[in-house]
Amino acid sequence: MTSRAVDACPFCEFGRAQEPVARRGTFFAKYDKYPVSSGHMLLIPYRHVETIFELDEYEWADLFSLLLEVRDILQDRFKPDGLNIGVNVGVAAGQTISHLHVHIIPRYHGDIENPTGGVRGVIPNKADYGQE
Is 16 helix (H, G, I), strand (E, B) or coil? Predict the structure, then answer.
């Protein structure tokens, strides 16, 4: 990866220029610019990597530690009824920025008619696995 590509990366740029909501070693958290619910956050490594599979053991530890901290922040500030945690890996899975980012999406009773299947809903008509 060229330094030019890193310089053009919005997450690398944010990590260098702005104060995050929280940080833990090699990762920081920020609110999503296009939230799907109140409190939607992203966990992002400072190091420019494209996918979660490129993380080293220290980054994995920081990711999970920050995940717990962000969960507490969301519970305190937004009081969600549940959470979805997701990662898009590759264009076919919906990844639009080539820098790893983990979504933490607060969920609220009634935000959708039928939440059955949760993250399985990324493919229409596949989430409700209890119905034939």
Answer: helix
Q: What is the CA radius of gyration of the chain?
A: 16
Of 40, 48, 99, 101, the active-site residue reads 101
pLDDT, one tens digit per residue, over 25-65 is 999 999 999 999 999 999 999 999 999 999 999 999 999 99
**Residue 120 domain-assigned (yes or no):** no
Neighbours of 121 (CB within 10 A): 16
Whether 101 is a known active-site residue: answer yes
Alpha helices in 46-128 (DSSP H): 57-77
Domain around 108: 3-113
pTM of the shown model: 0.89
| pLDDT tens, residue by residue, 95-119 | 999 999 999 999 999 998 888 888 8
Query: How many CA atoms within 13 Å lie on the side-chain side of 110?
Result: 0
